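Render this sequence as a predicted structure.
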Amino acid sequence: MGDVTRWWWVRHAPVTVNEGRCYGQTDHPCDVTDAAAFAGLAQKLPRDAVWITSPLQRTHMTATGIVRAGLPGPDPIPGPGVLVEPDLIEQHFGDWQGRSYAELAQLNGNLWPRFWLGAAHERPPGGESFVDLMARAHPAIERLSRAHAGRDIIAVTHGGTIRAAVAQALGLTPEASLALSIDNLSLTRIEHFPGSDTAHPWRVAAVNQTPV
């Protein structure tokens, strides 16, 4: 398989402190009490991997929970042996952050898309669109794939970021990407193959796989 780089994307555990509200890049903690889910991830994920998180504590708490469930890895997180990658952070929803989903639906005339808070190109006041997220995440994924060619990469990040990664691998439009379900503590596996610039370098092995 040569220098195939295997991405193991994990969405963080559920945020409960802001339940029913848009949190985006707000730095809330998450609920790490689902022992069965963490044990399942610890069994499925590879040993001797590169660990990557976003800057937000919910990804750090989730990564720590996986390690403490039995997967050899860095502890504490963040710390030595963990790459904290700002470009893989969740979409910034600007003025929408902290507002209830019901309030946002009313604000948008109950016309917001079925699967996301706004259309893929819609930029909330003071925030960024899903297209903006894709524009920063895709080069980072390419860069990290080159830097860690041939390695397993465990990336504990966010629903929006993982949708962007699948979109990159499959060539999906931004709008189609928003139709992907990415559940908390789910596993998405994507492989990057070396080769010519003209060959498609990506293969998707699994999307939104449950940990148990």
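Summary. The mean pLDDT is 93. The beta strands are 5-11, 50-53, 82-84, 152-157, 187-192, 202-209.
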